[in-house]
Amino acid sequence: MPGDVVAEARAAVDAHGHVRRDRLLHRIGHSGRVVIIHAEQGAGKTELMSQWLAYHRPSAPAWVALDSGASDPHSLWSRLLQALQAARPETFASLANDYLAGRIRPEEALSLITSASMRDPHPVTLVLDDLHFVAGELQDQLVSLLRRSPNLRLLAASRSRTRFEVPLTAAGLAVTSLSISDLAFTTDEIAALAATLPYQLSTPELAALRRSTRGHPLAVRLALSVMTSLSRDGARRPTPDEVQYGIEGALADFAPQFPAPENRTLALMAALVPEIDRSFADRLGGANAWANLERLDALGYGRVESRHGRAAFRLHTLIAGALRPRALTELPQERIAEVRRLAFEHLYEHADPIDILELLIDGNMDRAIFPHFVRNYSEINLKRSRELVAVTEGISAERQQREGTIPIMIAVALSEDSLVPTPRMRQLLELGMPTLEHRVAEAGGAAGRLLQLARFAGLRVSRSYEAAAEAGEQFLRQSGLGSPSWRSGMHAARLQVVLTELLAARIPRALALAEGLADDAHPARRTHQHSMLAFAHARMGDLRAAKRELAAVDASRADWWDSPHSIGWHLARALRASSLGRHDEAFEALRSTETHLDESELWPAIVWTRGIARLVADQAALGYQELDGALAAREHLPLSAGWAEELQTLRGEFLLATGDLVGARAALAHPGIGASSRLARARLAILASQPIDALTHLDALERDAHDSSANDSGPFPAQAVQQQLLRAAAYARQGNAECATSLATQAFLALDRLDNRLPLLWIPSGEMAIIRTLVPLDIWRVPPGSPFAGDEVVLEELSKREALVLIELARGGSIDDIAGDLHVSSNTIKTQTRSIYKKLKVSSRTEALARARQMGLV
Hints:
Elements: H1 22-29, E1 34-38, H2 45-56, E2 61-65, H3 73-87, H4 89-100, H5 106-119, E3 124-129, H6 136-148, E4 152-158, H7 167-172, E5 176-178, H8 180-183, H9 187-194, H10 203-213, H11 217-231, H12 240-251, H13 261-270, E6 276-277, H14 278-285, H15 289-298, E7 302-307, E8 310-315, H16 317-330, H17 333-347, H18 353-362, H19 369-375, H20 377-383, H21 385-391, H22 397-403, H23 405-415, H24 423-442, H25 445-461, H26 465-477, H27 484-503, H28 507-514, H29 523-540, H30 543-551, H31 567-579, H32 583-591, H33 603-616, H34 620-633, H35 641-657, H36 661-667, H37 675-687, H38 691-705, H39 717-733, H40 737-754, H41 758-761, H42 765-772, H43 800-810, H44 815-822, H45 826-840, H46 845-855
Parallel strand pairs: 1-4, 1-5, 2-3, 3-4
Antiparallel strand pairs: 6-8, 7-8
């Protein structure tokens, strides 16, 4: 199987090959007085209790190993008293001796043990292994013992339900129950055990192993044993099919004997499906089917438990693994297909989504696979993508290509672990995308819309952000939310389209499309949405709206601050802090995003926001170094054209702020025509004392704002303020104080509406000094920084004649030579030279030429 090799397992394995179950030991240690481990054979119940005693060393442990003889009251109390005597001889020795001597009858034992326990102030931990051997009435007496003995703690293991798990009893004693799902090995724990194999398992192989065994401890150990045997001491690497067949063979011995033929048939059908609820049972086997499943529960072959507010039966993992191959060979093919179809109809909204996916794959219901993935996208792709890849491993390339949506789905799952499309992802896209293009052209209705969604997903995986955004918008234009069962999937799809618009740097479109997410009830998606919208509003410059989105996020969760979904939230906080001049706070917010720079598609937004924070804090030189370093280190990562232009323009801004006008002119010579680029070029023109050129750039931006074909190239609200202020500065340079005053006043009023002072720092400080004299005092706001503080050296534009003289000075000519070439007197050239020095604020030819080169005048 392809994938990264797991070089080091994180779970600890002791000298006996047992995985230390730290997460479970921690849970037991922080539970109440009663912990019941309820799971089937081979689930590791006894081993877990042994680890608890070995690692936590509870005071006075009393271990009782139970068997079929424990159903006899005399035997049970005898074993219990002997264990208590060993734990606390000073309290229970006399009582145990009297009982063993026959001086105490079994019916008196409970009250005497309770009385002795109540008098003993020292805690005792009673450990009962295989509690299922104790009859119900005797279990009731144990419940009574625990209720009346506050210093007695119980840790018990059972294969069947106990009286401690009756709801009222469980609530009264604060019982903690651990099930087979809790005991199942995690991927890390399986990796630790797999380290003993003659060869290393890749990440996909580990995911496949966990899926095929469901993490069942005994099933995992059997599987690893099979893999070791098949490898012939490391001489070969077995194929996935060999491993699968080997595991099925190892589990065959766990197939039970059934008391009645109808029970056997029902169990075979149960092995084909994730679970069976009452309505599904009625369709499978008639009115008596559910009662037969309850008998299988009583026999210990499976378990009936509450799932999503309804009772459902599941075979135990080992038994299901043993019966599944038999079901496929003994049941008629049409019956197998019918069972799987009925299972999907009854369970698709209730059962585990990966289980349903496996059911659809096994049942060749390919057209239902992608819709199921869409419906459960948030859970599957964000939490269980590796399981999906493991489940789909066996689907042939021909089958994938025929459907088209299946390889796209697998590529989406793989993209969760890879920011850059891998060869495997590209191969899957090559399988699926041509088929989709053909099917989209023919299909209509709901099926056609799902194919459009799959096409969007494929473009998104390929990191073609602009094309993906267009495809996503086309999908949304033709799609409603549909039935309640589809709402979650449609909201998840819309959220992905919104995120893609952000990655394409199409911020206004992202905000417009996000309006359709207002009624999404999924809490995790709602939080992610608020986080993204906080950044989108902050990027637009509307910090008042960003503040509302920030407040909508519950930041008290311990896992929020480092979550990938919190990136937009942190970036918005940084921009807001920068606007208030709180530079330390801004950089602290940005530090929370640094770990995501190489793993998140939002890395350009992180780099850009950090650059803005550097500019506001008057750290342009450092910001320039960080920007160049970040781009050089991530030149292999996906980057949309929009963000590429923003970052290139930011480079030019840094150069402007450090006084390198020549370098800034070169950096801003790129072909981009976005609002940021046009504003930067206008700023460069003003710094170079070229207000007419500045107005030319601002006029072009004005035309873009009214051009419906220029997608998102018009200014954001904060950029519109910049535009007004720069235009005001240019008019002031030309002596048009009336227009300059009007524009500056409008700009400052807009800043209050946006609750944002950041646009002020983009105006050269010399121009701000002029604007300061134009606007009323009551609306004036102090800029949060002054990155272009050195620009006051250029306050006047050179005349055409002075510019010509400056060029001649640069060529090295003397005053007399220049006068002769220009056919004027030497005194005239001297006068013009003094004027040049005054405007450039220099005192010599050398300084004048250096300043002119810096400004790009020569």
